[in-house]
Amino acid sequence: MARNRKARAGNAVRLDKVSVPASLKDQAYLAIKGAILNLKLKPGEALVENDLAEQLGISKTPVRT
Predict the structure, then answer these.
(1) Per-residue DSSP letters for 10-24?
(2) Which residues, other chains included, contact 27 with Cβ-Cβ below 8 Å and sequence gap of 6+?
């Protein structure tokens, strides 16, 4: 068994590491930040949790945190 493992190790396929998907909180943060930087959200405009959550299609909790 050890010989087989060793033989396979020499020609093993190299795979990319799996990345962990961003949390909803992080996705919401990036979406809101992007909207601010792209001026989709205007300076001085009130940010309403309910509206942001609805537009993002998520609950208020990830928007709030």
Answers:
(1) HTPPP-PPPPPPPPH
(2) 56, 58, 62
46 token code pair: 């009130």
Check if the beta carbon of residue 58 is closer than 8 Å to that of residue 24.
Answer: yes
Global pTM exceeds 0.70? no
pLDDT 10s digit of each residue in the chain, 65 long? Answer: 555 555 555 678 888 887 888 899 999 999 999 999 999 999 999 999 999 999 999 999 999 98
Residue 42 backbone phi and psi in degrees, to 5: -80, 150
Do residues 31 and 56 touch, judged by C-beta distance below 8 A? yes
Other Cβ atoms less than 10 A from the Cβ of 30: the count is: 11
